[in-house]
Amino acid sequence: MVSTQIKSHRRRNINVIARNTPADFPAVLHWLDVDNGLIDSGDEFPADGDEIKEWVNRVGTQNPVQSSSSRYPTYDIDAFGAGYPGIRFTTDRSSSNYEALDVMISPTVAVPYTQFIVVKLDDVGADTMAITGDWGEGVIRYQVTNNKWLITSGSNLSSSSIATANATLLTVTINGGSDSTIAINGVVDVTGNGGATDFDRLVLGWEPQYNNSFLDGWLGDFVVARNILARDRDKIEDYLGDKFGITITH
Q: Whole-structure pTM over 0.85, yes or no?
């Protein structure tokens, strides 16, 4: 980890200040926060358009990094609308060039676990896109074959709703059997068998074991929790909704 003083982005939306942050919930094991902990190629908090080489984990101990400067994603101060920053990932599938951040997780996160991820796709319908995860271990993808969200932790579960290019909060619970769920902006969209593989690698922007599955789009905060209570899950969704200008419905 780079030893540096990390500055944070000051946002316009003040509603989020009144809410509990993910760090306030004991069930949360990892939290990547776009307002705190981004490190650019100059070892500072990025300005708009700067390249990102590391993302300091505010709750866990492992930080996703990129060792190759040609694969740095970039900081976008208005990724999810004016005053709502995120990280821009791009790819050139013709040459398999992509941008990503990656880290192994130890100890592993056992089922049941829930992932919260803020995402916006650049071009719905263009390509299969890996949002985050390692194949078979809680991966979240956008599936071009049917324009739906897909999760897998050993078994595949697709959303009922069509994905859009709007800013979206995906809440994905991997619980084995028939109890895994995909929620979109707070509303459970599908329940079924998403598998039951433990989570031991956090990959942002690509899928290491699925050929040509890279992200063209933006990521905001990413949270991983285990055995989270329903009421705490709702609070985290509300926090992220306020933070990124996404309307959440429970």
A: yes
